[in-house]
From TrEMBL:
This is PPM-type phosphatase domain-containing protein. Residues 18-225 form the PPM-type phosphatase domain.
Length: 269
């Protein structure tokens, strides 16, 4: 296998809230994207909840993940470690806005020739098969969350729940605070945030390694506003992750678009 990886923080941040795992010893690879916090918490090193969540997952799958443990169970264990870290710092886990959280996309090349995958949120996995077919293996559960949040607010109002009118939610931070309440709910989105519900929302599966030609893991910072994920895969495959990022960053600057942390792993088999 040839493994290419890329990790870069956004210009607006002091550290990257994305993280990657390249555990070649047991053939586990992962991309993690911490959700930018809505509170001011920092640990002794000045790190926020997004950085900590992504790196708790990174550290677990780099140094502590047992090779014989199914990948989906590994995600559940890492999520419990995240909960334990929040308890250590006395984070109020009853309030969604205080939770540290991270999206995740992880793959494992099994000894029986299968490739297992597990995913949460909008970190994504795209595979190219030997027959030339390119398939997105995971669903972006964060996509259109703003629309679904508005629909849910309207439903709550119909039920008699006091919810401010939509003018109130024109403020970006208020939108995000409400969106966090939809974490790991059927009409919301999936994310590792220490809650027990996470285990019910992990997308997972297996593909035959012999059928694969390449596989890409990426955080949403690598999404191009003009390309589908299949098109993005082709552009990275035909060059490399670094060249693709240079083009994407040029597009972001030219069009005055917000630039996010960027993380990606391309594995050519």
């Amino acid at each position: 296998m040839r493994v290419e990886s890329f990790l870069r923080r956004a210009p607006s941040k002091s550290v990257s809230e994305d993280a990657i795992v390249l555990n070649e010893k047991i053939n586990v690879y992962g991309v993690f994207d911490g959700a930018t916090p809505l509170t001011s918490f920092q640990d002794e090193q000045g790190m926020n909840g997004a950085y900590l969540a992504a790196n708790i997952f990174k550290d677990y799958f780099t140094t502590r993940y047992p090779e014989n443990l199914p990948l989906i169970e590994g995600v559940a264990v890492a999520n419990r470690l995240l909960k334990a870290h929040m308890e250590k710092y006395k984070i109020n886990q009853e309030k969604y806005v205080h939770l540290w959280s991270t999206c995740a996309a992880i793959i494992k090349f099994e000894k029986d020739g299968m490739v297992s995958f597990a995913q949460l949120g909008d970190c994504m996995i795209v595979a190219e098969y030997q027959n030339g077919m390119i398939k997105v293996l995971t669903r972006d559960t964060v996509k259109d969350i703003g629309y679904r949040a508005r629909v849910w607010r309207e439903e709550l109002r119909k039920q008699g729940v006091h919810i401010p009118d939509e003018e109130y939610f024109q403020d970006r931070k208020r939108q995000l605070c409400f969106n966090r309440t939809l974490a790991n709910k059927p009409f919301g989105y999936s994310v590792a945030n220490g809650s027990e519900e996470v285990a019910h929302f992990i997308q997972h599966g297996q593909v035959r390694g012999s059928e694969l030609k390449a596989i890409l893991l990426l955080s949403d910072g690598l999404f191009h506003p003009n390309f589908s994920l299949v098109e993005t895969f082709k552009k990275i495959r035909n060059a490399n992750v670094s060249d693709y990022v240079l083009d994407l960053e040029g597009h972001e600057i030219k069009n005055q678009l917000r630039s996010d942390d960027k993380a990606g792993i391309m594995i050519r088999i």
